[in-house]
Amino acid sequence: MSDSPASPARFPLIEISTVKLDFQDHVTTFSTEMALIHNVFIRGLNCIWEYAPVVKKGDECAFAGYSLTWAGLVHDHHHGEEDIIFPFLQEKFDMGHNVEQHKEFLQDLATFEEYMTGVFQKKLTYDGEKARQLVEAFGDSMVSHLHEEIPTISPERLGEYDKVALDKMIKIHDDHIKSQSMFTAFSLVATHHDFQGVPSWPPMPAPVIWIIRNVGYWRYRSYWKFAPYTRYGKAQKYV
What we know:
Blueprint: H1 26-51, H2 60-89, H3 96-120, H4 128-148, H5 155-158, H6 163-178, H7 185-190, H8 206-219
């Protein structure tokens, strides 16, 4: 899947087939869904890296808020994996390597968050080059992990599990996802997913997507100027 030129490319996206996807068939599509959300994270990281040195005066707090929202979604995602997905998969395959990879970049990510929190609270003066250097400290390790995790949840592996048990685990994970805020998490996903390439994801009812785009988006609208897409999926650049 080729991505929009609106999304800067310091870190490589995961290649995804654009064949028709049946998101009710978890064995065959769960790894694709994981790759899609991982690409959301990578697009956000690319935008943070790309725009960090060119943030305009007056946009510093919004950029810090955008960066912290992105980091918060990464943490929520990892909690869902470590608390729900990996324990279930551990019954047949060792998922410990994935957890260890999370730990490899968490400290440097925390340093980045600490700095951005200081900027957001106006306790620190924003320095774009420093922000980019902080991203460089964890970016490659994080993105390598996001790529390497996909084969560990392949259809071949998921096919080893009882379908009823697998569907139950994924339902619990879906409930975890649904508990997140439409103002932050879902608005970030809506502005970082390539709807032209994969229009059927996220698999949500149309009214829910409408609410995210037309209600949820607006609370933190100043953040989404840094996103690669508008709320309707049109490519954009921060200028």
